[in-house]
Every structure is written in structure tokens, then in C-alpha cells.
Amino acid sequence: MQLIKRVTLLVCVLCAGVAANSQATLEKPLKIAVFAPVYLDSAFSNDTYKLGTASLPRLMLPGLDFYNGVMMAIDSLNKENVPVSVVFYDTKSVTTPLRTIVSDPGLKDVSLIIASFNLRSDVKPLADLALQLNVPLISATYPNDGGISANPFFVMINPTLKTHIEAIYRFLHRTYPTENLIYFRRKGAIEDVIQYIIADMNKKTAGVPLKIKTIDLTDSFSTSQVTEHLDSTRQNIVICGTLNEEFGMNLSRALGSSSKTYRSITMGMPTWDGLRDISKDIEVIYTTPYNFIRNDKLSADLSAKYKTRYAGRPGDMFFKGYEAMYHFTKLLVKNGSSLINALSAKEYKLFNDFDIQPVRATEENALPDYLENKKLYFIRKVDGQVKSIL
Length: 390
Hints:
Blueprint: H1 2-16, E1 20-21, E2 30-36, E3 44-45, E4 48-49, H2 61-79, E5 84-90, H3 98-101, E6 112-115, H4 123-133, E7 137-139, E8 154-156, H5 161-175, E9 180-185, H6 189-204, E10 212-216, H7 223-227, E11 236-240, H8 245-257, E12 264-267, E13 283-288, H9 297-310, H10 316-335, E14 356-359, E15 370-373, E16 377-382, E17 385-389
Parallel strand pairs: 2-5, 2-6, 6-7, 7-8, 8-15, 9-10, 9-11, 11-12, 12-13
Antiparallel strand pairs: 1-5, 3-4, 13-16, 14-15, 16-17
Helix pairs in contact: 2-10, 5-6
């Protein structure tokens, strides 16, 4: 019953068209539009909940948790009497698809757009809308670029793969320049891109280039095909050169099963942030733009409220929704139409630092293709537990 009440509340809010309206201190409060893939049509027929006692479909959960974070941030903003109004749109609505939503006249007076995407093709319609309105679009989640170009109002909090790989290269060059560096990859277009970025960085480095041994493996590789390239007399730095999750998990298992013989540190890809099946027998380092340590007072308070309201534990999507809604709303209220120039401000920081910079295809381009968060955290896990943030 609690689950049904929770979802019904969501529907009522959406039907009303306004998620929250703070106690107005201005005649016309600033307006923010929030978009997330909630898939309400999967759970409702008109206003009737149709799943009975069944659990919510898994595809609904990330967007719903993002929405819950947004709503809890609105509660906090309301307590502070922040003069904004918020409208929320389900990007997976069957009755009102995204291509129809972006032409809604009610969006013409928005000052900020916040979005959680889960499909690359959804990015451009909202990015085009932001450019048309000259207001920032904060893209809080992966996928990131969506093929956007010549749009200085599109803001990626989750950086591109290129930015992640460049950061990984600089980290390796700074931290493990003389260790045994082995790069395992599979065949594929994305894998070629990753390898090209690393090779390009190696050519351009001002210092001594890294000596990286590249090994191609099939998807059905054996443990021995991995260990034959490791050195039992020194530290091995193993680089996973693919975003393929199954390959990454198999590589971690091969390294875990041989961890007593070979000392290895595994550099994972940014997608490893969400993987739960990586071997706990290896030390792992990976990059992420989000560092939710969960042991600070704000995180504890939010987790307690979440548990009371939803009888569960909040995931990262909840905190991403809360942070995006609270942090950028506060910056909007302070900076107004100049927000685009204040996105990296340290004021109102909650959990993460952001370093949002313009990105251009070439140095000659005056107009940025997009704005991108260049701040990345290196998460070090040992025995499956976060041990340090580098």
C-alpha cells in the first residue's frame, strides 16, 4: 500500500503540472523544468494503478529515485522560502512524448532545465530547447554528450569518455610511471577510441611516455591468458580498455583468482562505478564525477528521511537528483540570467565540486560545442569497500 501511495502522489503532482511552488517573494518566481524517465504509463492506466501487488518495473527505478531526490530538494528549498516554481515532465510518457513536450508553451518562460537521461536520442530535443531559450540545461546523468555541438547552454555533469580517459592517463603518468602497465582490451569501435585517446596522450605528454603493453583478448578469454602477462616480482597496473561490463567482470575475476601470486591494481572504466560483480579480491581504481561518501550529516539526514518516507535506502540517483535541484536552483536565484557563467561556483556545495568548462572541437571555434564538468574523483576500492578518494 505504501508503494501505491508513493506512486499515486507522483501522478497527482504531474497532473497538476507543478511539483512545487515556494512561498513567493517575487510576483513571478523563477521557473525550473525537470525531466526524468519515470515510465508512468508502465504502472498506470489513466489514474488507475495497474500493477497490483507487483513490484515496480526495474526500468522505472532510476528515474523515480532521481525524481524523489528532486522532490526532497524542493522540500528543502521551500523551507528556505526560495522563490522558484518547478514543473516536472516524464520523458517516457506515451500520451505526451518528448517531441510534444518540448513544444509546450509553458516552457517558454523557464530559467533553468534539469534532466536525467537514459537514452542518447532524448538528449538533443532538450538541448535544442535550451539553446532556443538561452537557458542552461543541466544533464545530470549518463548518457552524456548525445552528439551535441555548437550549443553553449548544454551542460554535462557526467563528462565524456574522452575526458575520463585523459584523466586516467594523467593519473597513471603521475602515480605509476614505472610500473608494469598492461592494457587488456577486446575488439570493437569503442575500444579503438579508448586506445586512440591513450596513444594520443602518450605522444603529447611533456614527460617520458608510458610503456604500456597492449593485449587483445576474445570475450571467452581464460585466466591464464591474463596471468601470462603479469609479473610476480613487481606491482602490475592492469588497465581495462573496454566499457563492456561482462569483459570487465571476467577480467576482475581472473585477477582476483591469481591475487596471491600477482600484486595487481586494476584501473577500471567509469562504468565500473555502478558494477556490483567486480571481484572483491582485487584493488580497483576508477573515475567518477560523483562522490557520495554517505557518512556526512546531510547524507545521513536525507537517508533517514528517505527511509521514513519510502521504507528503503536511497541510491546514487536520489542524491544526484537532490544535488542538481538544490545546488543549481540556489545558484540560479543568486545569479539569474548570468547563471551560465557561475556554474562552477563553490557556493551551495552539497557533495561534489564541479569544474564546468567550455569544450570546442577546435581552438579556432569561438562558440563552444557544450559545457563539461572536468572535475573527476578517483575512487579506490579494496575488498569491495571504498578506501580512499584520490
